[in-house]
């Protein structure tokens, strides 16, 4: 067992990651006292953790493919590998740019400039986002990964006072402005990735426009984030760590998928465990209509994804033929997509800030997909955790 000292701050990456995620208010002062150089933090902590997302996305893309609306494609091995490498390298370079922004902004908000502390603040606050990258193993859980990664914003907010001496009353504004800078940087990184990837023959997606005001921040692909709810969201996560954290057995989830949903009959069923979570999936058919129904248990990491609900994430996109809506209902995230011309879409809801139930495919109407989600006994699903 290693001894914690300023030169040897934590016995392992896992110990530091666990501490910063679940006890950030206690861990930031310890980090501030450490004398480990930025180079050591970069090589020992950032390099291995930053690789989780790109590696998981690469493997998930090769195993399951990408897509939606009934269409799936798999990137070539070399194309996927090239994109993963580009993303990885640019994300590491971005750490230095973000820490530069954080350092320069600190005095503006009554804090003190310190390049070393700014780098620590950025690197360790990124822990949640990096670990959430594991959801890339299952592309359908990409939204869950984005929402879980939002906890990094809270970690930055908590550490701002300790690391950069920003007064408590200005810490939230400092965080918001820095986050906006990060979003702008992300847009630039995305543009670079697209440009380089096109040279290599790799396709990527782009970011939407970004806007903000004093209370909210709009994040591309996610919606509006109510930053005033950081504290409550953190309390929810802390409370979840005191309960059951082990994901349910895939067989338990599989047993919740019914043999039939209205006129739709189950024709195939499977389950799996991936990283910190588990998932069961079944395919249903009725005539020429077909959709899949999935139940996913994200365990404690799912509680981080619950930040989306706590922050009041909302987005809406609609045209003459289709719509996409993200809302919250009874504290749970709900995502609905539907194409009226092709009668294809998806409906997903989170349960107990831990589970995801999603129906996706070609159906008679979006109501069929909603009925499929409703067919999963949510009470029984939650009850299973008590004996787990």
Tell me the structural class. Answer: alpha+beta
How helix-rich are the residues, as a percent range? 40-55%
Mean pLDDT: 75
Shape, please?
A: elongated
Radius of gyration: 21 Å
Number of strands: 13
Q: What order do the strands of the largest sheet run in, or round the barrel if closed?
A: 5-6-7-8-13-12-11-10-9
Walkthrough of the structure:
The structure is a single chain. The protein is an alpha+beta fold and 388 residues long. Helix content is 49%, strand content 21%. The chain has helices at 13-22, 24-33, 38-50, 52-64, 77-105, 115-125, 127-132, 142-149, 151-164, 168-200, 230-240, 250-254, 299-305, 307-310, 366-374, 378-386, and strands at residues 66-68, 71-73, 216-219, 223-226, 260-261, 264-274, 277-286, 289-297, 315-318, 322-329, 332-339, 344-351, 355-362. The strands form three sheets. Strands 5-6-7-8-13-12-11-10-9 form a nine-stranded antiparallel β-sheet. β11 (332-339) and β12 form a beta hairpin. α4 runs antiparallel to α5 (77-105), α6 (115-125) packs antiparallel against α9 (151-164) and α9 crosses α10 (168-200). The longest helix is centred in the middle third of the chain and has 33 residues, at 168-200.
Core attributes:
two-stranded antiparallel sheet, 16 helices, alpha+beta, 388 residues, disordered N terminus
Short description, anyone?
The chain has 388 residues and is of the alpha+beta class.
